[in-house]
Amino acid sequence: MRKIFNGNAPTKESDIYSFGMVMWMLSAGVRPYCDRPHNKQLIQEICLGIRPSVVDGTPSVFFSLMLQCLDANPSNRPTASQLNECLGNWVIAICDNPDPSDLSI
């Protein structure tokens, strides 16, 4: 994220981070850090590793994938292909059995 905040072009890894933040917004129903100013201090804290807290009630398989997408080390984040495969598996599993506890990453 530091590279983007410094004006560099987004990377595939930063896109995955953004997807993780979208996942967080879906579970929380609000923007990340909506309770504080979006300023240089927040940018610095994000670069140092601050992440929004997991929302109570979020299925564990969902927050596990979300946390992987938000990993501070970009090389630890899943690729778009891995996300596609994982989400596709979830769709198939949900069609077979709508219990989210049966899902896996």
Automatic annotation (TrEMBL):
InterPro entries: Kinase-like_dom_sf, Prot_kinase_dom, Ser-Thr/Tyr_kinase_cat_dom, Ser/Thr_Kinases-Pseudokinases. It holds the Pfam family PK_Tyr_Ser-Thr. Transmembrane segments: none annotated. One of its GO terms (molecular function) is protein serine/threonine kinase activity. Residues 1-91 form the Protein kinase domain. It comes from Rhizophagus irregularis. This is Protein kinase domain-containing protein. It comes from the Eukaryota. SUPFAM superfamilies: Protein kinase-like (PK-like) (SSF56112). PROSITE patterns: PROTEIN_KINASE_DOM (PS50011). Coiled coil: none annotated.
